[in-house]
Amino acid sequence: QSMDSTLHYIHNDSDLSTNSSFSPEEERKSKVQDVVPQALLDQYLSMTDPSRAQTVDTEIAKHCAYSLPGVALTLGRQNWHCLKDTYETLASDMQWKVRRTLAFSIHELAVILGDQLTAGDLVPVFNGFLKDLDEVRIGVLKHLHDFLKLLHVDKRREYLYQLQEFLVTDNSRNWRFRAELAEQLILLLDLYSARDIYDYLRPIAFSLCADKVSSVRWISYKLVSEMVKKLYLASTPTFVVDLMNELVEKFCRCHKWSGRQTFVFICQTISEDDCLPMDQFA
Hints:
Elements: H1 3-11, H2 24-30, H3 38-45, H4 50-55, H5 60-75, H6 84-91, H7 96-130, H8 134-142, H9 144-148, H10 153-157, H11 175-188, H12 194-209, H13 214-232, H14 238-252, H15 257-272, H16 278-281
Helix pairs in contact: 5-7, 6-7, 7-8, 8-11, 11-13, 12-13, 13-14, 13-15, 14-15
């Protein structure tokens, strides 16, 4: 009804726990709220009814998925229990376009719901999208940093082991997927420690630097230069020294001219972006 009341609902941290063993009467009550007319919400929730998709509009589930963050924002996180079942139904919809729509907005929903509800209700859906078709995975990948920064540090570290999987796509010609991965990794450098960057992100960055598509390689040069900068500023100097030694070994002394060219381009980017003091660079 007013912006103030909406903001009050968003920032209210009270979470209502849901019980999966509801009776039909309790189930109906669990969908009751007092923010919008109940009939309007009931109409919206009925969009996931399979019979409607067949008789009313085959795209209705996609429209429902597209609107869900807006509905969640209006109802507020304390009324998430009204939408949870509908969200899970849409997240397992047979149509990939419906799942793709949710994948592109899951980071927005996480902001609305807060960390507790995100960890309990959104992380399992997020994990499912990571293993989905490329058309769905790209939605998660494009906002990977936006979602992971909302998680607790321990939970966030669990995804380090899965980042490598983004190098594998259904279609190897899908180079934009790898380019997006490189872009996201640049942002992710701020979320992880120097050791995690060296152990997990470095191998992916080196793999992307040797990609067959030049657009992917150019973004990857920027990624490696930012990695050098981040590791140089870390408290443990051995990481940046080891990284630079590996750059020399892997690219500068490469028997292929393309590898040696990569080394020159990485040096250019490190120099232009002032990632190292000049004496260290030399």
